[in-house]
Structure formats: structure tokens, C-alpha cells
Amino acid sequence: MNFSILLFVLLLNGSILAQDAINATDIKINRQTQLVCVSDMCDFLLKFGAMEEKLKATESRLEDSETRLTNLENQVLELKNKERTKVVFSAAAGGNGQIGPYNANTVLIYRTVITNIGSAYSHFTGIFTAPVAGIYYFTFFYHAGGLETANLTLIKNNQVVVNAYDHKSLQDGADNGGNAVFLQLQEGDQVYMRLGAYSQVWGYNQRTTFSGLLVSQV
């Protein structure tokens, strides 16, 4: 009987020891598994962070590209608008005889409009008003009788720019003259021709003319 009890106790202890060994092994395996999982998670997070940085860099490059593309499109649109802006005019003094002389400087109105693309020249006032900033080219010619002084001046905003002049002469039956100039104008600047006091020109058959055109916008 005592032997049987002793044998039972030994078997019980052996079973407990075996179970403890199994539990210890399971704990070790679980710890190793956890370490492996933590290591894998760290690798994943590192790779994810690197991918996120690359994504941010790509987004930044895309934004820069979009900005450059927008600027380029705006430049192209601006160039197209400039190409569409056409300003050309030619007008003649008209009439059927002598214009002047007057006892004061007078704006010479060219009433016969030949060309007026852009409608910048007014045949009511004789004044050209720049619709856009740019480089403009102006020319004027006159025909006049030689017995009177001929004096024409191109004016920009009340400032003298260029002039054409001929003295009166008893031996000279008729005179022809003119001048030309490039001008940089701002939008709204005004250009016109001034007939000098006590001078005259002829308007017969469109011989006295005033012309201008936009060469380039600036």
C-alpha cells in the first residue's frame, strides 16, 4: 500500500515537471514570436516612412510642375493677347484747299480717315490715344503753298516731339515736307499734330496725312 502511494506521488511530480517544461518552452516560443513580430513591424514602419517621404517629395515636384505649367500658360495667353492687339491708322486732312493760317497754335484735325484699326484715332478731335502700352511709329506729310510758312509739330501729351518746317518764299510755289518718329507710349497717352501759328498746309486731294501704328507691346 505504501509503495503504491509513493509511486503515485512520483508520477504526479513527474507530470507536473513535464508540464512546467512544456509551459517554459511555450513562453520562450511566444517571446521569440513577439520579438520577430516587433522586428517585422519596425521594418514595415521604416519602409512606410520612407514611402511617405517619397510621396511628399513627388507631390512637391508635381506642385512645382503645375505652377510652372500655369505660368507658361499665362505667358502664352499674354502673347496671344498681344498678337491680337492691332493698332493702325492713316488719315488725311481732307478739304479742298488751304488750311490756316491761324493766329495761334491749332490742333490739325485729319478728317478723312483712310484706316483706323483699333479705333484709337479720333477724326473729331484729331487726337490719337494709345489703347495699350507699347512702341508706336508715327509719320506725317504735308503739302503747302510756298508763299506762307509751313509749320507742323507732332505732340505727345502737350510735349513737342518732332517738327517739319518751311519758310515762306516768293520764288517757291509749293512745299512738301514731313517727319517720322518711334515713341514709347503708356496706355492713355495722346499724340496729335499741331499747326503752328501763322502757318498753313493744303488739304486738297489728301496730300497732308498723319499715320501711326503699334509696333510692339511692352
UniProtKB/TrEMBL annotation:
An annotated GO cellular component: extracellular region
Signal peptide, first to last residue: 1-18
Keyword Signal: yes
Keyword Coiled coil: yes
Pfam families: C1q
TM ranges: none
InterPro entries xrefs: C1q_dom, Cerebellin_Synaptic_Org, Tumour_necrosis_fac-like_dom
Coiled coil: 48-82
Location, primary (coarse class): secreted
Subcellular location: Secreted
Keyword entries, A-Z: Coiled coil, Secreted, Signal
C1q domain ranges (all copies): 82-218
The protein, known as: C1q domain-containing protein
